[in-house]
Amino acid sequence: MRYLSHTTSDIEKMLKKTGNSSLDDLFKTIPEKLLLKKDLDLPEPLTEWDLNQHMDELSLSMAFSPKQKIFIGAGSYNHYIPACVSYLLSRSEFSTAYTPYQPEISQGTLQGIYEFQTMITELLGTDIATASHYDCGTALSEALLIALRKKKKIKKVAVSSLVHPHHRQIINTYFKPLGYEIIEIPFNQDGTTDFSYLEKIDDIAGFALQSPNFFGCIENLKAAKAAANLKNAFLITSFTEALAYGILKKPGKLGADIVAGEGQSLGISQSFGGPGLGILSSMKKYIRDLPGRYVGKTKDKQGRNGFVLTLSTREQHIRREKANSNICSNNGLNAMTACMYMACAGKIGIKKIAQLNHDKAVFFKKELEKIDFTIPFQAPFFNEFVVKVSDEFKKKRENLKSKGIIAGLDLEKYYPLLKNHYLFCATEVCSRKDIENLVKEVK
Fold it and tell me: What is the DSSP code (8-state) at residue 298?
């Protein structure tokens, strides 16, 4: 989209309409001491072709697939997106992220969201799902708020330290102003959450953990449910890799009360970090507690199927004090993308893609072990895993960048005790040749 600035005439007309004599009048409510009194230190303007060249040069400083071979997941995964998904998504009927409030003119979009909800519940083994949120971190925070609202007198929750670090930051942003306490649960030597730690703490409203967790390890959700039951707390599970549940047991079937997740893997491009697709799903008894929108199916006077916005617990629709959330977005276009991807792949396809992801990662891990990389965590994993390397690897990793290879994520930033530990990932788009080339370079 080209940017065409307002002309002097345009500005004068707008000022006259708003009753202001100058642009400065629009900002007169800002205290004088906060106003900038000097010109911004900006470079000279560029012509359109010079600007395009500048943007091209900036883009070359970024690592992106397939030009670079990126062996990092950590919440954003490079997957193959079928051409039919990209084509259908480009159609004007779908190209909106706005909520369809008028069912008489929005049946197609409403049906798409209804199908999305249905497929998400089948993927996760739950009863209901709302029509998406900003991202997994937001959905997980909302899930914990549900637990606190249901356990009115308890102001404390437990969160696994293996929940994605960014998501834990989002939870903290939500909870700190509200005065809620967050207890971080440590992890075991095998790379999974230490459920026994729950026995050492007082009453909690909910217990949140991620599976596969940030280390890529698969958590024992059945044991997690037992630990949560001992505290009479909600079990809230999350995930960043939705395709994992093509082969893993479904969290809803293993006792999770609420499941939050990231749907970026379901046909949504990485786009340098966003936008994503927040998923929130639960058992039917919590249908009025979930924030967001819920599309239902009904019949019209002629007996034909029709789709309507059945529930919407947002402050735009009901009294603010009764609203479950004042910050949620439909992310409708991304929900529609995930719906198209799941319909395109089907149950068998998603299972095959998931298995391929796992097989590629197992092969990758074995190849790294051949060159004396240590695997510190022995718990089962899906498509990413942690390796421990020598001190020389960091320098080698920097050299590999110049060759278009991004070799793992340094975990020390997130877990200071894990120096020389890197998180690697392989998805179905990683070829055997790419993996062997990385191993050869490192060796």
Answer: E
